[in-house]
Structures are given as C-alpha cells and as structure tokens.
Design a protein that fits this description.
Blueprint: E1 9-15, H1 23-27, E2 33-39, E3 42-47, E4 50-56, H2 62-72, E5 76-81, H3 92-112, E6 117-121, H4 128-140, E7 145-149, E8 151-152, E9 155-156, H5 163-172, E10 175-179, H6 194-213, H7 216-219, E11 225-227, H8 234-247, H9 249-252, E12 268-270, H10 276-286, E13 291-292, H11 308-312, H12 317-332
Parallel strand pairs: 1-5, 5-6, 6-7, 7-10, 10-11, 11-12, 12-13
Antiparallel strand pairs: 2-3, 3-4, 8-9
Length: about 350
C-alpha cells in the first residue's frame, strides 16, 4: 500500500507526445516510431509498419498520470522519453530535431504542472557539438538533466567523444539518467523476452563499468549520474568486477588506476529490483543515500504499484524517506520546497 505520509518522487518514468510527426516522410528514411491511435485511450507504437508495443493514455496524458500518481501516493514523477526514441543511429541533425520535439513536449508538461513533474531531456549523443547545444537548451527550458542510453551505436560511454558532454552536464548542474536500450546480443536471444530480462541488466553494468574504468567519475567528481533497474547486474557482480581488477590490472586498470569499489557511493541507482532481498542487498552495498525510487511507469516490466516494495520493508520512516525522495532530490539537485 502506498505511504502517503512520506513525500515520494519516482525518478524513472517514461512519456511520449500523443501525436508524433511522420519522421520517415520528413527525413526520407525509416526506422522511427509513430503512434497509431487505433482505439480510444490506447495506441500502437509502430516502427514504420512494424508493431513495437501497445501503450495506454497514461503514456501521453499528464492528467491521467496525475490521477494514477494520486492513487499510488506518488507526489512527483521525473519524466523521460521512451528509450527507443533516442534515435542515435539516425543522421545527427535529424536526431537533434527529434530531441527538440520531445524535449519541448516534456518541458511543456513540467511548466503546466511544476509541482508534480520534473523533466529530463534527450540529446543526439552521436554528435558531441549538437548534444552539448541541446543540453544547454534543455537547461534553458527548465529540464533538470538528460536521459542517455547505455551505449551509443555500440560505443561505450567511456569513449573520448562523450566526455565533453558529461563535462558540460557537470558544469551546467544537469543530472544524467542512464537507461538500457538496443540491448547487446539481442539477435542471439530473440525468444522468451530475453533481451529485456537478460540484456537490460547487462547493459546497465556495461555502462557503469565503462564510466568507472574509463575514469569519468574520477575526472568529474561532481557529475550526478543515476542508472536504471537497480544498476542492472552491477551490484550483484561487484565482487567479480573487483576481483578482475585485482588479478588483471593490465586489462582493467588501463585508463584508471583506482579500484572500482572506490566508486561505490559516487553514483545513484534506482530501486527497481522487484525483490525484497535484492533491495536489502543494494541498500547494504550501494548505500541508501544513493538509491532512489524508480518504477519504469507506465510499462509492465516496471513496479506496477510504484513504491510498494520500499513501503513493504520493515524499515523506519527515515530510511524509507531516503529512498522515496531524499536521494532523488540530491540527484536532481533540487529541494522539496520546489514542489510545494
């Protein structure tokens, strides 16, 4: 049951505009998402003519989201686009146009309901200059940070071309939310929903390890980064990662000589682990002050009643408040009073 007495922020929610332009027609090539509103309060996400996912009106209606939040005891949602919209594979100028469209949409909702929503933008990560340009505009229109993928066209996040983007995020006081997308080895596990069940956790660990070993956290100590899905498989494999660093520094300590465990507490993860024992574990390993409620609303692989797992734990109010809102506020660089 929702705990309505504790101020609660959900840092991991996705939203789309109700009406998406025909980018295939506009740009002259395909691969983009559009919505087929085939019946009331419901739409098919289509990639050109291929069905991707069906969504309900809570995927685009701010009013419906607020209604759901009121029922669930969620005071604030942090809005970000659906990761398939990143479009890093497209021509950079086209990805920028899509990003501007999506970012303006989220900023508009935040402006309409500033006490209920905060927003994250998306940027064309495949082009450093354009990404920084749009990042600065995101700041200007009131967004609190950006959401990025766990890789960019199979380039890991430690690649030199991405560092200026992270550097600009630190300088602009913009948070970063890293979300799996375009899962590795998906072509080898197309049955049983394995890309989402196996690939997604691996993607998050891939991103965390890339930023640790690549020295990004070392060089940018004030950068505030959060990772989706409880950090994926990283928390459960930190022992293996650490042991690998110890026994093969020639392979692991190439760009950063510091031990990976030194970066525990230097980044955030959300709480989306679906299991009380795992939630206990990540609190013990990662620290409660670096874990924030994330539900993956409104999708079925998320927590269907956001905050239920945290509220069900035999913890005192102070610890629950840390996970339900304090860590989120720290990551966003915001104060509770901004939502009251």
């Amino acid at each position: 049951m929702a705990n309505t007495t504790i101020f609660t922020i959900d840092i991991h929610t996705h939203i789309l505009p109700k009406d998406i332009p025909n980018f295939k027609e506009k740009f002259g090539y395909g691969g983009f998402i559009n919505l087929d509103h085939h019946k009331p309060c419901c739409a098919k996400m289509m990639m050109d003519e291929k069905f991707f996912r069906e969504v309900d009106d809570n995927c685009w209606s701010a009013e419906k989201r607020i209604e759901d939040c009121d029922d669930q005891g969620i005071h604030v949602q942090v809005l970000s686009t659906v990761p398939i919209m990143f479009s890093y594979w497209a021509k950079p100028k086209d990805t920028l146009e899509i990003a501007v469209f999506l970012n303006d949409h989220i900023a508009g909702i935040v402006k309409r309901f500033p006490k209920r929503f905060a927003g994250l933008g998306t940027v064309p990560m495949q082009n450093t200059a354009l990404a920084i340009k749009e990042l600065k505009r995101c700041k200007e229109i009131g967004l609190r940070g950006i959401q990025i993928g766990t890789h960019v066209n199979n380039l890991n996040l430690n690649e030199a071309q991405f560092f200026p983007i992270f550097e600009a995020c630190e300088e602009l006081d913009m948070s970063v939310f890293v979300h799996p997308w375009d899962m590795m080895a998906k072509e080898h596990m197309d049955k049983y929903w394995l890309p989402w069940l196996v690939g997604m956790p691996a993607e998050s660990s891939r991103a965390i390890c890339s930023l640790i070993f690549g020295g990004i956290f070392e060089r940018l100590p004030k950068l505030r980064v959060a990772f989706a899905h409880g950090g994926g498989s990283f928390p459960s494999t930190i022992g293996r990662v650490s042991h690998g660093f110890d026994v093969r520094p020639d392979l692991c300590a190439v760009d950063n000589k510091k031990h990976p465990r030194e970066y525990i507490g230097k980044f955030y993860i959300d709480s989306l682990v679906h299991d009380p024992k795992m939630l206990e574990y990540i609190v013990a390993v990662m620290g409660a002050d670096k874990i924030a409620l994330g539900s993956d609303y409104p999708f079925p692989l998320g927590e269907l009643k956001p905050g239920q797992l945290i509220n069900s734990m035999p913890w005192d109010e102070t610890l629950k408040e840390q996970l339900l809102s304090k860590s989120a506020l720290d990551w966003l660089g915001m104060r509770k009073e901004e939502f009251s």
